[in-house]
Design a protein that fits this description.
Blueprint (H helix, E strand, L loop, with lengths): L7 H9 L4 H4 L4 H5 L5 H16 L8 H4 L3 H10 L5 H9 L4 H4 L4 H6 L4 H13 L29 H7 L7 H10 L1 H20 L15 E9 L3 E2 L2 E2 L23 E5 L14 E3 L2 E7 L4 H10 L3 H10 L10 E6 L4 H4 L10 E6 L10 H8 L2 E4 L8 H7 L6 E5 L16 H7 L1 H12 L1 H4 L4 E7 L9 H10 L7 E10 L3 H9 L10 E4 L5 E4 L1 H6 L3 E4 L13 H16 L5 H9 L10 H15 L4 E8 L5 H11 L5 E5 L6 H13 L8 E6 L5 H17 L12 E8 L3 H7 L3 E4 L5 H17 L7 H7 L4 H11 L8 H15 L5 E2 H8 L10 H5 L7 E6 L5 E6 L2 H15 L3 H10 L8 H15 L15 H10 L1 H14 L5 H12 L4 H14 L3 H24 L5 H27 L22 H17 L10 H11 L14 H12 L1 H24 L5 H26 L5 H5 L6 H16 L7 H21 L9 H15 L7 H10 L9 H16 ...
Helix pairs in contact: 6-7, 12-13, 15-23, 20-22, 27-28, 29-30, 34-38, 35-38, 35-39, 39-42, 41-42, 42-43, 43-44, 43-45, 44-45, 45-46, 45-47, 46-47, 46-49, 47-50, 47-51, 51-53, 53-54, 54-55, 55-56, 56-57
InterPro entries: SAM, SAM/pointed_sf
Keywords: Membrane, Transmembrane, Transmembrane helix
Organism: Labrus bergylta
Length: 1404
Amino acid sequence: MTEVKVHKTCADRFVEEEVSGDSLVAFKKTDILDLGIKHGPAVKIISYLESLRDGLQRDQFPAYVENWTKEQVHQWLLQHVNAYSKYAIRLQEEDVSGDCLVCFKKQDLLDLEVKSGPAVKILSNLRQLSKDQEPTLQPIPHNEQKEAPNPIQPEVSVAQTVASDPAEPFNTTEVQADKMLGKKSGKAQQQFKKASEEKKSDEPKPQNFKARRKETMVVNCLHCFTHSYTLQGLTLKPFSHMHSYKYLDNFNVYFISCTLLLISSVLLVLPKALTLSVLFSHITFIFVILRFSQHLLSRDKKKEANQGDKLKNLLTCGGNSLDNYDNMIIVVNKSSPEQVQYLKFLNKLKLFCVLDFDPDSNTQVGLCHSYRESRWANLHTPSQYQGQIDSVIKNLNLYKQTSWVFCNGRHDLEGDSNKELNYWNWVRKSCSDVEQLVSFICNPEVLLHGRSLIMFLLLSPVDSEKDPIFETYRAFMKKTEEEMIIHICESQIYELSLSEVNGTVLALRPFSESSERLLPSSDSSFVVLKNKDEDLLTALDILCLNQCENIYEDNSPEFNDKRTKVEEEFYRGGKVKWWNFFFCDKDKQRPFIKRDKYENLKRMIRSELRESKEMCVLLNLFHNPGCGGTTLAMHVMWDLRKEIRCAVLKDNSLPMTEVAVQVVKLMKLENEKPCQVLLLIDDSKETENPYEICNCIPQTVESYSNINVDKAQSCKVIILNCVRSQNPKDSYRRHNPSQYITASLSPEEQNEFEKKLNELRETHDTPENFYSFMIMKSNFDKKYIDDLVHNTLENFDFSSKNAKLFSFLALLNTYVTESEISRSLCEDFLGMKRIRWQEESALDRMEPFSNLLIIDRVEEWGVYEGIRILHSSIASACLEEFERSHSLKVSDITIEVLHCDLFFSIAVVKKRFMDSIQQMLIARQQKKDGVVREPFSPLIDKIHSEQGRQTVQQIFVKASSRFEKSASIPQALARYLYIKEHDFPEALKWAEKAKNIKANPYTFDTIGQIHKSNLRSNNDRGKQETSCNPEDLNTNIKIASNAITAFKKAQELANSEEEPEEEAVDESDDYPRKSYNVKGYVGVLEIAFLVFEILSRLPFFDQRDPMKKTYFQSFLKKAIPITSVYKEDNERNNIYEEIIKEHERFLQNLKTEVKETFELLDCFFTYIKGRNSEFQTKNHSIACDLFKRYERRLFLEKNQADTFAGILQHLDKPAEEIERITECYAYLQKQHHQLNDKKQKTKETINCILSNIVLYLLKPNSKHVKSIDSLSDLLSTTLQDVGLRYPFPDPYYLALLLFWPRTTEEDTEIATYVTAIRNSTRKYLTPLFQKRSTVAHLYLGKEKGLKRLVSKPQLDENFKKMRRETLAQLWRNGDIFKDKTIINRLQRVRGSIEQGRCLPIMEN
């Protein structure tokens, strides 16, 4: 193709694909790209084709332009067009030389992902070249050798290219930088030039590199440091464009995390983009190149000597420990068995993942197989890294275990999909998956803002750019933004063999720690904890008996420095570490403070291990936040580590079954006989999860081992459950065995803290500034804390960034336990450029508040650093000070947090912060009874009490817009509106919104609860109203129907979920997650009983009328329709009838539904053990109360004991019946606090008194009979409540029975009750008594108390032998009272009858 003049390899591709002329004319640009031809030549070929095909004249450009190489095009774009470097790099990668560029149209640039603006600018500048003079192009410095400049020459080998290319000098930009940097910079530049010249002269000629695998290497390193930082749309320029270079003088090659490229052959030629290579602000590229040129080595050997130290500096950022890196990623190709033996240092690295291009890596001689002999790695493919980031992390167990990703086949597995692919097939089939994998790794949400090391480990030759390794490298480069590039410097390392590299890395800390970690075993022996075993126990942080030993030489400067740092961090307010106990053990004169409960707790643990017959025992340690509960638990665990295997649960959210499996594995590790285990669960939210572990562990032992649980005395697990509590003493009383510790020191403890302060003064300059320690030493003195806060906040100005951030931390740390804001997020908020890894940089910017702040390492989503206030009491005191001295309320701070856009963009560290904000708004504390929780979070309670609905609703509405995918916020607002404000329509609107976001049992239950509250409110109002509105009945039935529908749906969803899905902090109703179970059933029952109560007040269902009550029961039992119910014929009743007819099916199904639901709940509570015992206790209590009321009332109705007259009829029935009736009324009396119907309460109280009287007469020794005093008091209270105008004579009849004066007493009140009974009888019973005589059931006897009451059946007992008819005649004519037996038993009352009234006269 001499006319077009493309590279020979391009022409060869057309020949290989049999492209003839008649085929070529049909080609489009995409067809040429599909041949693997780069974009530049493809555009040129198509341009020439179109000119020939259409007979058009191509645009003319100066000859010098068409002679430009792709490097010169790159230079022109950067130096004259001022295009972004990423666009210049992109064109260079696509072989866009000058003769190709002149053929480009705007669409061709857009196809290369160049934006429209730069594309138009490039083409405009290109056309302008025809009018201007030839521009001067300055070479751009780079660290790889220049490629062959002539595009029409046959392609030569890469080795020849490297050997023959001349080195290029610096460009003008670098020269200008030299002037600004001064002599140091100039000197470095001269060294760079010199090195480049020497490299050219000493470059070896092409040879058979495959036959020359030597272990000597040259390390050629690039340190790239980045700083791109964007705040509110403003992008800061790179350092090269700034006026000040003051920071660069402080730079060295060890200031940030690195990307390390190890290459075992000179055959790798890195792309031009390498000179601008950087991933993002926390990752930088360093390249280490292995070469095999002996004469080059001998020259460089004279040049530099201590290469081992230099390599250590590169890997440790100038320190002596690999702990500088939080995540390490390895990209590796094919290895040989000889090399694998020198790669053991990989076992010691914190590997996040390995991208392996060796399909034999997991075979017997491969690198993966070697690694997995001593460490654990999960085997994955690139396609598994697609999807939601948090889902991928969870599914692949990232951060917890190494992920080994096979990027080009696996020969240890069968199948075509596991075969190794050549380059072209790999590009077609696998490249996109690997690119997505790289995109995942480079996402800031994955590597977070820690320090990361990416290592390209090339163990076999790469002799062409057409290699998957290059494509992978380019994939990393595509994630680079030009704005993130500041500076590149060069350093070289020579003369280390691969075995020396291996040994050098292995010697770095923390890997000089004692080679073996030890665990206690049976019979006072010890076993080694292998790395691989520890890798598998991802849920546990295992405490070894030789923890922290042999890392520092005792009393060495490093040892003392470490001790000082650890002590200062802890006593300031940091979390306690095993190092704290280790250092105190080393110095017996300065022991760790033992709290008073230390010995008790240790004694309890040993006692349970020795005496308990249970395999798993739960010990609860309840403590106030910030009083040292966790420290006490860890102190006890440290001192028991040589007796029992100890571990801390890392993640409380893990499934308890999984935790149980790992605990059992720890129990059996390296020993046939199981060992005892002490597991610390720190600050679990509720005590149910540990109970679940206790249940799981015995099952796991039986399922996963051959241990005989009954015989294995050593097979015991003690769970030390360390729980934050606002009321530790109350929690302690409810749980056994348990211990507690409060925010109050005993005199002995105060003495120990005073002694420790004196010790700290000997080793620390100002221990009085260790505020967390000083707070405890002052015995949590409120005045000390307030004075400290007041002095610190004296010049507080909420308008400043640091003051706002401090107020955010105060709010968060007060209302959310274990909360912090990530350091990177704080730096972003403060507008800081992350240009150096300065540990205190963020704290420096937080002056003058930084003395109250500390940086913690957060072990979540890998590792990141978070900033928090030293102590929770300081945080809460800050909020008080804000309001007291600066008129800043917690609501103001909350609204400001929600207003800040920065906090609510997508990122993992931001997600944790967002979760904390959400938890602050909705998480509720348990009440003192420990069974139910407070209605709202403490923050919302405070804002409501101070500012009311408007502010609370404003906060929730704003939060709902921030947490658009969370149902918890609108759900919490709905609860607030119906509970606090009784605004049911508005509450329902927000509950529906929550349900639309996530339809789960909780959101549907909230809808049901709103309807229930609305119905209950209407019912209570209806009881107070004298007249009823039929439309209210219609409204209430519709509300009840909607409520039951919601509760049924909630129950249906709860039943259909094997495991209710986990959603962060989505526990905003009256139950914790995974504990819904039967709440829906209980809700249905509550609604049904409310409906029954509402219906019972209708005129034709009035429960006070036995006949109407019978109609009501018959209607509910579907025995009669509403039309058959007798009722007065009036307009109101007719409307009621029509309404009930409309809802008849719903209403008549309620009774059956109640019965079936009670039967189901009876089975549930009898046979099923609830997950959350405290919550199920509440559910069980509600259900039982409803059931008992339902069951007892059914019993009373069935036995005609629900009326006063019905109870009197039991005077001549078996005593067992009235005993059961009395028991029922006693229960109903206890439930009266839940009963809103005052009339029903009075009626049941009166019946209760009478049932006691009847029971006494039939069975005086029954345990259910109340004393005469109790009954008299109850009746007196009732009489006061009802007054003297009660519609029925029942209470006054009881007054005559209980209060009738004895012959020696004078009681003027009895006349009042006589009048009252006469009035009530005359009004309601006279029509029934006309022309009828009354029946006397009880008579006044001569005894005291209840004994003075005599029933007619008791008197009849004296005349057993008399015929029934004769006895009846005696009663009718009054002759019965002439009998001596009757005269002796009854009390005679004298009086007269005047105008139909009986007037008794007291004998005294």
